[in-house]
Write a structure and sequence with these properties.
Elements lengths: L2 H14 L12 H10 L5 H11 L6 H7 L1 H8 L5 H19 L7 H5 L6 H10 L10 H10 L7 H11 L5 H14 L31
Helix pairs in contact: 2-8, 4-6, 5-6, 9-11
The structure holds a DNA duplex (10 and 10 nucleotides).
InterPro entries: DNA_glycosylase, Endonuclease-III-like_CS2, HhH-GPD_domain, HhH_base_excis_C, HhH_motif, Nth
Organism: Ramlibacter tataouinensis (strain ATCC BAA-407 / DSM 14655 / LMG 21543 / TTB310)
Pfam families: HHH, HhH-GPD
Length: 216
DNA sequence: ATCCCGAGGG
DNA sequence: CCCTCTGGAT
């Protein structure tokens, strides 16, 4: 993707979705952290389905600890990797209470010290909860960044650094959401819907033929 | 590089 | 059946 294409690329995504929001459901920073932790290699729809039952009874780290590992597993059994996630979430709650007064810390270093929280999850919390211009490179953003040529990279960290370098400051805070939504609904993994893509004219990816009968 | 690991879609 | 989903720890 040409450098002069980046501005119109984001301006177009912004026009289509002026106030992008996370599709994970949460009512507090703690719930956001828990939801993002649970969302690894899982769909937000699947996570919401579980947390809508879980959070009313475990909306704080203290309540989660009181719930206990076995019952937590019961709530999230329908999410992939649930045993690892249950163990990590319980341990994270213990650390939140013991080290952080039951609150979610605001620095990358403290967040990444929590089990189950890596660079991507920390980036999401810093962006969504605290408004920082971080680039959380998940499967969608990795794919869209490489496919379009917006920010090529061999691994998520390379893509993240390239995004920080290339995304204009005016779009930096919301870039995460625009790229996610674009990847989830248009620039999908298997058969990208290029025939209905609003930013296709600036994209490096070529196969843009609609399946017969699709589109309008 | 490998393991974890269920649900939904093609 | 195979692929994908807002990855992290070893």
């Amino acid at each position: 993707m040409k450098r002069e294409s980046i501005e119109p690329f984001f301006a177009t995504l912004q026009a289509a979705n002026p106030q992008p929001v996370t599709e994970l459901e949460y009512t507090s920073v703690f719930e956001l952290l828990a939801a993002v932790l649970l969302s690894a290699q899982a769909t937000d729809v699947g996570v919401n389905k579980a947390t809508r039952r879980l959070f009313p009874v475990a909306g704080t780290p203290q309540a989660m600890l009181a719930l206990g590992l076995e019952r937590l597993e019961g709530y999230i059994r329908t999410i992939g990797l649930y045993r690892t996630k249950a163990r990590n979430l319980m341990e994270t709650c213990r650390l939140l209470v013991e080290r952080h007064g039951g609150r979610v810390p605001r620095t990358r270093e403290e967040l990444e010290a929590l089990p189950g929280v890596g660079r991507k999850t920390a980036n999401v919390v810093l962006n969504v909860a605290f408004g920082e211009p971080t680039m959380a490179v998940d499967t969608h953003i990795f794919r869209v960044s490489n496919r379009t040529g917006l920010a090529p990279g061999k691994n998520p960290l390379e893509v993240e650094l390239e995004l920080i370098r290339r995304v204009p400051p005016a779009y930096a805070v919301n870039a995460h959401h625009w790229l996610i939504l674009h990847g989830r609904y248009v620039c999908v993994a298997r058969t990208p819907r290029c025939w209905e893509c609003a930013v296709a004219r600036w994209c490096d990816y070529q196969p843009k033929t609609p399946p017969s009968g699709a589109g309008r």
